[in-house]
Amino acid sequence: MATTQFDNVYHGSGKLLGMIRFSDAGLGWKPLDEGATVTIPAEQMTAFAWLRVARQFQLKIRLKGTSDQEEGEHVATFENFQRDDHAKLEQVLRECYDKPLETIEVSTRGWNWGAADVDEHDIRFFVKNKLAFSLPLANIANSNIAGRTEVSMEFINPKDQQPEQNTGAASSADALPFQGSKKNRPDQLVEMRLYIPGQVERDEAEDEEDEKDVKEEDQELEEEEEGEEEDGEEESAALAFHNTIKAKADIGQVAGDGILVLKEVLVLTPRGRYDIDMFPSFLRLRGKTYDYKILYSSITQLFLLPKPDEVHVLFIVALDPPIRQGQTRYPFLVLQFPREEEMDAELNLDEETIQTKYEGKLKKRYEEPTFRIVTNLFRVFSQQKVHVPTGFTNSTGQECVRCNVKANDGVLYPLNRGLIWVSKQPVLISYNDVHQFVFSRVGGAVASAKTFDMRVELSHGVDHTFQSISREELDNLNHFFAERKLRVKNELTEEAMGIKASVDELLGDDDDEDESGKRRRDDDDDDDEEEDEDFEAESDDDDGGSPSEGSSDDEDDDAVPDEDDPPKSKKPRT
């Protein structure tokens, strides 16, 4: 079996050079250094294309979609071919696979306007009928309408969201696919916005959606009926493009794969009511404005927390990588359910799948409170434990304390392995990252004596301060952290001891001043008595008192005498 080899070739967007060999059975690529070998059978390769890229020339191979194939692997690319390799490669492909090598002309005009075409696996942008660039649909995580004429597309590498084992580690630099400093991490396209003006006929947009998959015959019939009913109506070209992307981005998912649909679920972060469509490998949040696709492998932690009102419960989903809404990232989903709300749900799974794939952890039918059903589904699909508050109760018997972070009001839940503060943007702190907890009062002001602040000093990173915690929770928090052998510094106690010492010192000085003052008053009283006797002797010769002296006598009668002063003698009347 004759083989043809090309050296110094990259696989995909990787940085490892290797050699690629073609034979009648297929092709194989092997890196020069350590790394995985890539093999593609001949029967899976359907088309070949040659085009200019940043790293010389690229061989693009279209592959057949197979049931056991990973999402997004419908195209394989190999780069760094030289211009002189074109004739040799074209001959090899024709001899081994009886396929032509198509040459794709690439536009180099640099224009930022042109035409967009959405096919089965890619979005291709053309300028003057030449390809400007193409984007795999598998890398589109979300698409939204940003205004009436703009379409926003968010991208993420599906391989980065599917680690071999989801350990549930918190978001950190070690959890990222790239190891090393942040400065050396490669850039990645995360969002693109397209301006698409104009109107299109509604039935034309639906015809594009109908081409999604020939297997979805029932869905196509429904869409055709809707198109006939609304024939002649127009919609914006941006909305039509957005709907086409949504219809074709779910590669590998066909109608009937949905396990359960939860209608009108209240989501506090990002705020709104969403329909939650749960699939075997991912879920979709479908709102009026935004849609989100979330892989279960991106779920790192789950929390089930009771609200202080004792009427609702919060279900929090930690995500890594987070979902995006423009420039805003949401590393947490905060779902709220009424505690007493119940629902009847039947999963679109057979008993064999439940017992084999999910090890009997699911039930075919549920008749339970809604939050318990949702919690169980997320726990099984994401293979993560659900954290609940245990071991802490506040002064009123609840499992949380109210406090503020800057100007935002929220609720703090002390857990066994960390703290979570729930508000618009939750804050999660692991005890492993905590250096110490510091209890303090703002400025030592008397007005803040009923509340205190808790500062969480981390071993690395930015400290967190939780403000305006009720003074009644001090002992409960102190005892809770002490049981877990966490370092606590109580500046309130030190401040109180300092104040007490200052007060004792001041009181001691006051006692000395009182004794000396009393002695001075006693001496003054003796002098006053002598002066009074002289005054009375002189007044005997006087015919009467002045009006002011008479007024003073009247005021003395109404005043309350001082107990420390001896009573004054009155002037005898004649």
TrEMBL record:
<dbReference type="InterPro" id="IPR050454">
    <property type="entry name" value="RTT106/SSRP1_HistChap/FACT"/>
</dbReference>
<keyword id="KW-0234">DNA repair</keyword>
<keyword id="KW-0158">Chromosome</keyword>
<keyword id="KW-0805">Transcription regulation</keyword>
<dbReference type="InterPro" id="IPR024954">
    <property type="entry name" value="SSRP1_DD"/>
</dbReference>
<dbReference type="GO" id="GO:0035101">
    <property type="term" value="C:FACT complex"/>
</dbReference>
<feature type="compositionally biased region" description="Acidic residues">
    <location>
        <begin position="506"/>
        <end position="515"/>
    </location>
</feature>
<keyword id="KW-0539">Nucleus</keyword>
<dbReference type="InterPro" id="IPR013719">
    <property type="entry name" value="RTT106/SPT16-like_middle_dom"/>
</dbReference>
<dbReference type="GO" id="GO:0006260">
    <property type="term" value="P:DNA replication"/>
</dbReference>
<dbReference type="InterPro" id="IPR038167">
    <property type="entry name" value="SSRP1_sf"/>
</dbReference>
<keyword id="KW-0235">DNA replication</keyword>
<dbReference type="GO" id="GO:0031491">
    <property type="term" value="F:nucleosome binding"/>
</dbReference>
<feature type="region of interest" description="Disordered">
    <location>
        <begin position="195"/>
        <end position="236"/>
    </location>
</feature>
<comment type="similarity">
    <text>Belongs to the SSRP1 family.</text>
</comment>
<dbReference type="GO" id="GO:0042393">
    <property type="term" value="F:histone binding"/>
</dbReference>
<dbReference type="GO" id="GO:0003677">
    <property type="term" value="F:DNA binding"/>
</dbReference>
<feature type="compositionally biased region" description="Polar residues">
    <location>
        <begin position="159"/>
        <end position="170"/>
    </location>
</feature>
<dbReference type="GO" id="GO:0006281">
    <property type="term" value="P:DNA repair"/>
</dbReference>
<dbReference type="Pfam" id="PF17292">
    <property type="entry name" value="POB3_N"/>
</dbReference>
<dbReference type="InterPro" id="IPR035417">
    <property type="entry name" value="SSRP1/POB3_N"/>
</dbReference>
<dbReference type="Pfam" id="PF21103">
    <property type="entry name" value="PH1_SSRP1-like"/>
</dbReference>
<dbReference type="Pfam" id="PF08512">
    <property type="entry name" value="Rttp106-like_middle"/>
</dbReference>
<feature type="compositionally biased region" description="Acidic residues">
    <location>
        <begin position="523"/>
        <end position="544"/>
    </location>
</feature>
<feature type="compositionally biased region" description="Acidic residues">
    <location>
        <begin position="203"/>
        <end position="236"/>
    </location>
</feature>
<feature type="region of interest" description="Disordered">
    <location>
        <begin position="500"/>
        <end position="574"/>
    </location>
</feature>
<dbReference type="InterPro" id="IPR048993">
    <property type="entry name" value="SSRP1-like_PH1"/>
</dbReference>
<dbReference type="InterPro" id="IPR011993">
    <property type="entry name" value="PH-like_dom_sf"/>
</dbReference>
<feature type="domain" description="Histone chaperone RTT106/FACT complex subunit SPT16-like middle">
    <location>
        <begin position="398"/>
        <end position="491"/>
    </location>
</feature>
<feature type="region of interest" description="Disordered">
    <location>
        <begin position="159"/>
        <end position="183"/>
    </location>
</feature>
<keyword id="KW-0227">DNA damage</keyword>
<dbReference type="Pfam" id="PF03531">
    <property type="entry name" value="SSrecog"/>
</dbReference>
<protein>
    <recommendedName>
        <fullName>FACT complex subunit POB3</fullName>
    </recommendedName>
</protein>
<feature type="compositionally biased region" description="Acidic residues">
    <location>
        <begin position="551"/>
        <end position="565"/>
    </location>
</feature>
<dbReference type="InterPro" id="IPR000969">
    <property type="entry name" value="SSRP1/POB3"/>
</dbReference>
<keyword id="KW-0804">Transcription</keyword>
<comment type="function">
    <text>Component of the FACT complex, a general chromatin factor that acts to reorganize nucleosomes. The FACT complex is involved in multiple processes that require DNA as a template such as mRNA elongation, DNA replication and DNA repair. During transcription elongation the FACT complex acts as a histone chaperone that both destabilizes and restores nucleosomal structure.</text>
</comment>
